[in-house]
Amino acid sequence: MKTESFDVISIPAFRDNYIWLLRHGRLAAVVDPGDAGPVQAVLAREGLQLAAILITHHHADHQGGVAKLLEDHSVEVFGPGAESITGLTTPLYGGERIRPFGAFGAAAEAGEFQVLAVPGHTLGHLAYVCGNRLFCGDTLFGAGCGRLFEGSPEQMSASLQSLAILPETTEVYCAHEYTEMNLRFAAAAEPGNPAIQQRIREAAVLRARGESTVPSTLVLEKATNPFLRCREPAAIAAAKRHGCAGEDPVSVFAALRAWRNEF
Ligand code: ZN
Ligand code: FE
After folding, report:
1. Which domain CATH number covers 203?
2. Is residue 73 annotated as a catalytic residue, yes or no?
3. 138 an active-site residue?
4. pLDDT tens across 157-208, in order?
């Protein structure tokens, strides 16, 4: 991966969504603009020109603002070719490398993004990786993972595994502030895991100050996210208490995910 030369601005939207705005000089790319208004406000405030839109999956809270943004900005829209995405100009399926700022000559040194197919939450779901930053939509959350609306446990388990092998310093920019809720489940799944208790305390401090728990890091997720810990004896035991017949990671994942739906 080439050098990344942008910083990331968090744009809260709706109740608990995060739209990520990547700023490279005076150019901006946005990931999952579910709402146009808050994005337009940040573009105006920071004096930025929109250069590209990146979409992880088709749900309205991730692409609902695209039509309005395209009225004012004629830009490339990257997203899953397997899903219905408003204004999609560059259909992606995973395995590609894209340069969202690349059409702008002066910005040619800006980051190259690796596109990963991460089916599970939806079938065409994509993740974008640039340097040590991962934009993963509703696949991996702080201490949790997305619901299986379209895919199978096998698919989601494999998708999470493909994210877990990224460098441990990778920053995880997910699309929702669900961390505290997820940590309550994590503590129930692994009551003896001190890293989870520590993270609960840290998240409470952040949220009490009105701050975000996102991004986290992959090393923290690997220590505290039950859906990345399906080989741990405690997680296997918890899954068994909730109807899991086998000990293989996919069965454990499926049982934990089903339990989480009712938690
Ligand atoms: Zn979603
Ligand atoms: Fe969502």
Report:
1. 3.60.15.10
2. no
3. yes
4. 999 999 999 999 999 999 999 999 999 999 999 999 999 999 999 999 999 9
